[in-house]
Amino acid sequence: MSHTPVSTPTESPTGAAKCPVDHHGFEPFDLQDPFPAYKELRAEEPVMFDERIGYWVVTRYDDVKAVFAGWETFSSENAQAPIRPTGPPAKAVLDEGGFTAYSGLSARVPPEHTRIRKVATKAFTPRRYRVLEPMIRDNVNLAIDAMTTKMDAGTPADLVADLAWDLPTITILTLLGVPTEKIAQVKEWAMSRAAMTWGDLTDEQQVPHAHNLVKYWAFCQSLVTAAHESAGDDLVGDLVRLQAEGAEISDHEIASFCYSLLFAGHETTTTLISNTLRLLLEHPQQWAKLAGSPDAIPAAIDEVLRFSPSIVAWRRKALSDTVVGGVAIPAGSQLLLVMGSANRDADVFTDPELFDISRPDARNHLSFGFGIHYCIGNLLAKLQTRVALEEITRRLPGLRLVPGQDIEFGHNLSFRTPAAVLVDLEN
Known about the structure:
This protein has 15 helices and 10 strands. It is α+β, with helices and mostly antiparallel strands.
């Protein structure tokens, strides 16, 4: 794929002539089953301008990967920008509340991104994961105990509410040194952040979420203040200590990193755990294979990430006139990179619509991004999902999906999260 600037780009997408009439079944905020539309887009219009959201929708693997890699041309500065502009009422709430939170890493650009990621990497280490693993396993088993009690009494368990909802939140709170009593509050704030950034809200609907973001940001700032007074053995303490030793990172940047982790550190893992169990239970033979071969679990997780990622789309902004997939993209254009489509590109993956945990190249998925912004927390997400699978397949090999349920997915641009996944035990 070429990123060579073009001297005469095609007509601006603001022109009526460029706006396509046929969106090929693609509905930006409907994630119930977007994959047929993705397939049609790859075949018919792999780089399509969607005037409804003002984005070029990019769906082929090579194009998505190249845009991620081409950070000098395709900036991440819009990755955390609201899809729908913040209305005056919500903006007033944010301004009056002193809301100045910014991305931890995903929306920052070099050299700022390079500087902060270098410091964060020193704190976000495999040692911290190893320390957390016994706690994660204990929490998984406590959840399994409660689920078993419920199912033995004849009531289905919900893999989202009874396992995946709290587990990664406890993990990220522990990592940051936050009391686990804050779970419900942090989840509420995270839902507001998702709604404000990736949702399709009216001005009035934004207001309560804006109030939550003000509280969320104040809490993140308080974590940094507390760490300066008494730095604990946690990630915030590590960042404050590194700062004191001369690392180039400000209190505002540390608070912004916490702001990102308190969202991305658990929301996407909740979805990954839920989708992993859901997909495996939808394929009983593959579930049985894992129950007898735990060594196959890491590869299975990569196949879930390929087949049904937590985040199906991410964003970039073109800084200059360029070309994507043979289509001229004018400077200033916004791009929606659909990893959920790229991961099913038949030019890269054999039988891409087939869910197969023995697929040898599943780890080539783009669900954690690619290049300088590759997800810094990917190992922690995989660790928690692996532990959950190890314990559930060991203790509940007879788990099954409740027949006939209609699993609903949230309505937003990027996060494909099941609302509930009901399970019971085979008789």
